[in-house]
Amino acid sequence: MILEQIYTKCLAQGAYFISSQGEAIIIDPLREVQPYLDLAKENKSEIKYIFLTHFHADFVSGQVDLAKATGATVVLGPNAKAGYSYHGAKDGEVFQVGALQIEVIHTPGHTMESSCYLLRDEEGKEQALFTGDTLFIGDVGRPDLAAKSTLTTEDLAGHLYDSLHNRIMPLPDHIIIYPAHGAGSACGKNMSSETSDTLGNQKETNYAFKLQKQDFIKELITGLAAPPGYFPENVAMNKRVNTDFDTIIERGTTPLSVLEFEKLALQEDVLVLDTRSVSAFAKASLPQAWFIGLSGQFAPWVGAVVQDINQKIIFIADEGKEEEVAMRLSRVGYDHSLGYLKGGMEAWIAVGKEVVETQEVTAQEFVDGLSNGSIAHPVDVRKDGEFATSHIEGIQHLSLDEIHKNSKELDPAKTYHVHCAGGYRSLIYVSIARSQGIDMVNVLGGYAAIKKTTLGNVTLIA
């Protein structure tokens, strides 16, 4: 038996490859199918089944393209309905993969079709449970994403409690829990950075197994941040046949000359993304470009701040990173990339086109400016939970997640100094607000650097 977790840090997402005696399965594949085809080839296996634990909200999964490429059967849990060919599994149904068995355990709560898959080895012994967004390491899935008029968030939380306590808790302690996500995903509140654990340890350490039902429901629905706007769009995409991945990548990696790029950039319905490093963007970029760098959680932040999933996008990338940009956009359903600036910013600058440099200050300069009054409008753009944990006394809090609402509070006549935790998110905020005519200054190193400065009369509230 071969079991491999394929973990994608940008999305904090785990897909799984399992093979035995020349047959293989994939659980929760990402949109690009070649890595799974390569794994199957390396292990001399044919992919027989593609299992989805549920219709994901935070990425577009690759079951349709993978089934087309391999002839494998897509397996969805009870209650699932999709616009492509699939096998609707029954609770308790068992699938044979070589000498292994995969049993479907219906675990509604995160969504009503959510299912876990129990792996039994060649001797019939339970080895692993692939839990999707039902059970994370240290947490459980949020219960609000599938709430409808006939099914409240509280109803879903109640279903999740029953699934955890009646379907998962009775399983043997030694089995390994493999979730669909880890820390950094918006599908839960307090996930661990660990990507697997024994069920026995989770029973001891995960709050979800310790609370009574009403307390569990209260805990689960309290403090839930609003989900990113692209989540419902990704759910819908995961229920239908979409443009195939290769077509999206081919279009998205179209090289555009400076004149072609400029012509598109001037169109109101086209967004310019600069995906380079923080320092490269700050040094020189287009005045209207939004910064979302590949070095951070690129795809989730695209989904959080680019409101229209059908947005036409052209981008600036480091040489050799063009395909990666198009791929990572497509992972969250942004399929309308039109191409990239051929030759990058060097080509743009070489022909004398307009560039803008981002104003920046060091953390010490920022603190000194607050102390002497030369900086009058500081802004903290971290998440609500981060701000609540610790922040500068008197600072304005405008979370990046809500930029299209809270940026309306900004005055074009003022200059704002912006920080996040480390300098990545603040630059996203600065770039978007600047494209709207607001004078912005980025604080290098963010709150982490601020805490290391000589604070003077600046007070940190914890």
How is this structure best summarized?
The protein is α/β, with parallel strands linked by helices and 462 residues long. The chain folds into three domains: 2-234, Metallo-beta-lactamase, Chain A; 243-350, Rhodanese-like domain (Oxidized Rhodanese, domain 1), CATH 3.40.250.10; 359-461, Rhodanese-like domain (Oxidized Rhodanese, domain 1, 3-Layer(aba) Sandwich), CATH 3.40.250.10.
Question: Can you characterise this structure?
Answer:
This protein has 462 residues and is α/β, with parallel strands linked by helices. The protein has three domains: 2-234, Ribonuclease Z/Hydroxyacylglutathione hydrolase-like (Metallo-beta-lactamase, Chain A, 4-Layer Sandwich), CATH 3.60.15.10; 243-350, Oxidized Rhodanese, domain 1 (3-Layer(aba) Sandwich), CATH 3.40.250; 359-461, Oxidized Rhodanese, domain 1 (3-Layer(aba) Sandwich). 30% of the residues lie in helices and 22% in strands. The protein is built from 17 helices and 24 strands. The strands form five sheets. It has a six-stranded mixed sheet, with helices on one face. Strands 7-8-9-10-11-12 form a six-stranded mixed sheet. α3 (153-168) packs across α5 (213-221) and α7 crosses α11. It is globular. The model has no long low-confidence stretch (mean pLDDT 96).
Topology (elements, then pairings):
Layout (H helix, E strand, L loop, with lengths): L1 E7 L4 E8 L2 E5 L6 H9 L3 E6 L11 H8 L2 E4 L10 E2 L5 E4 L2 E7 L8 E6 L5 E7 L20 H16 L7 E4 L17 E2 H7 L7 H9 L9 H7 L7 H8 L2 E2 L1 H8 L4 E5 L3 H6 L6 E2 L6 H8 L6 E5 L5 H10 L5 E5 L2 H7 L8 E3 L1 H10 L5 E3 L3 H6 L1 E2 L3 E2 L5 H4 L8 E5 L4 H12 L3 E5 L2 H5 L9 E2 L1
Parallel strand pairs: 3-4, 4-5, 5-6, 10-11, 13-17, 14-15, 14-16, 16-17, 18-23, 19-21, 19-22, 22-23
Antiparallel strand pairs: 1-2, 2-3, 7-8, 8-9, 9-10, 11-12, 20-24
